[in-house]
Amino acid sequence: xxxxxxxxxxxxxxxxxxxxxxxxxxxxxxxxxxxxxxxxxxxxxxxxxxxxxxxxxxxxxxxxxxxxxxxxxxxxxxxxxxxxxxxxxxxxxxxxxxxxxxxxxxxxxxxxxxxxxxxxxxxxxxxxxxxxxxxxxxxxxxxxxxxxxxxxxxxxxxxxxxxxxxxxxxxxxxxxxxxxxxxxxxxxxxxxxxxxxxxxxxxxxxxxxxxxxxxxxxxxxxxxxxxxxxxxxxxxxxxxxxxxxxxxxxxxxxxxxxxxxxxxxxxxx
Amino acid sequence: xxxxxxxxxxxxxxxxxxxxxxxxxxxxxxxxxxxxxxxxxxxxxxxxxxxxxxxxxxxxxxxxxxxxxxxxxxxxxxxxxxxxxxxxxxxxxxxxxxxxxxxxxxxxxxxxxxxxxxxxxxxxxxxxxxxxxxxxxxxxxxxxxxxxxxxxxxxxxxxxxxxxxxxxxxxxxxxxxxxxxxxxxxxxxxxxxxxxxxxxxxxxxxxxxxxxxxxxxxxxxxxxxxxxxxxxxxxxxxxxxxxxxxxxxxxxxxxxxxxxxxxxxxxxxxxxxxxxxxxxxxxxxxxxxxxxxxxx
Lengths: 269, 296
Fold this sequence. Notes:
heterodimer; A: MetI-like fold; 2 domains; 13 helices; 72% helix; B: mainly alpha; MetI-like fold; two-stranded antiparallel ribbon; 74% helix; flat
């Protein structure tokens, strides 16, 4: 089946290069001086980091990075722990009501976020969570999809191992934590990458729950900043570059894990 | 017997102990808000005063609201244009990429990058591309090639496809990767047998690849549809004031929900729209179960 069709290869490569053109334009323009912005030439004649210095020193970008990093990290830790604990329980314990619990958790996947944001907002308002880091992250602390995924992987862990650990005198949490969990690290790392990136790029809920610029996440901050810059496109491109660069770095480092993770789980980033 | 029973009871206690916190969480942060959303759709409420029960008044209002119908129409235009274009492109790319020997990983990565990056940031990059001359890159090229400049985001007819383009661009990598996984899961022996029988590559595609990819197509058909029906980030960031203009020409349902709830504080009316969205997505999910169930 393998062919070395040079025309197909060249077309595929050209298509791929077209796909990354927006990034090239964004980065090239962020290095341009304001006088060069109307110049169609892609590369700046005298590249400068002035735009970056200006944005990082005058805007709240560093602060938004901190908020996004805290939200994404805390959410990821919580999701990894609770989703795998529930997935393990549903895969390896026999108890009454197991089927019902599984169906209930699965059914949460049918409820779209957009239907929940208004009740979440009402809840956050009455609890005093508006404009807080907890307010941004509370809707994502446990996910139905992660439970479903981890359950599938824990099903593949042999029962003999668990029984042996039980005979050795480990308690049930010890068995989960020290015996079962280390056996599903590929699934855990896929879930970790996608939960982190999903929270890093999330827009609708952080936009709704925050009104104070001190608590914006990177996407919300970028949207408001870009609105203020109006036609200073080189500044908008600089802000976009700052927002996108971490995701590009993560992708370059973890490229294989991410793509095999998607192939293995059908996970949507 | 008594000892085994104790073990089963012990297991049960551990299980419910592990489930207690997450189940409480799901009850409070998924199920209760979903129920609350339905209730809200039956009320008139501006977030400050009391909730007034109005029955199906909000739904009646939806039926007679021209903006709602326009918005629903836009949402389906995103779907009807986006779905065939993105799945068609993704399949052709994946089909050929599967046969590539050199640099397959690199080329796959190029297609995949847009999927992982922040939509908000890339929306502004595309917004800049569409600007009138001499700012926008697209118009710069058009003028350079001797065509006349296009209004793109400023035209009621061009704006929707212009906003859709980056959404397709961002989703493509995911679809290519899923198609690749589906194509690779087809046993090599099928192809070898077909080649021995003297089948050409076109016949193999029609008789083997496409039928065996049916579950992949169904999965992508549904996830992609849901993605386009929920489009928000690109429209919010590519239209002035995040309003889905010009003249609501690009405004999708989710943006209308956002505006109704958080700009006009019309919580009940916005909730009724979320129920409509929920119903549409539910129908799609049930369709997926049915389409995948048929074969088994």
